[in-house]
Amino acid sequence: MLLSKNPRAQPHVRIQGEGPPVLCLHCNAGSSGQWRGLMDRLAPRYRVLAPDLYGSGRSPDWHSDRVIRLQDELELIEPLLAVSDEPAVVVGHS
Predict the structure, then answer these.
(1) Does residue 4 sit within a domain?
(2) Cβ(89)–Cβ(24) below 8 Å
(3) pTM
(4) Which tens digit of pLDDT belongs to each residue from 49-61?
């Protein structure tokens, strides 16, 4: 599945469980791996998606000389919100 509008920028995404979607977003110094414990707990009732943002975990580095913006990060993960017809619950921290 092509997730990003930019084919060079495909995020690595951990996916676990079935049910209503929960999207877990990490801080800049983290990765999707920090959500493993929560994913284990939620997976029996929810489909949990935890992407690695640019330059984190297994996702690519930012591909431009331009300073990355919040909009760029949103465009990377926005397709994850379309995996279900249901609204996603978003979990994050910084």
Answers:
(1) no
(2) no
(3) 0.84
(4) 999 999 888 888 8
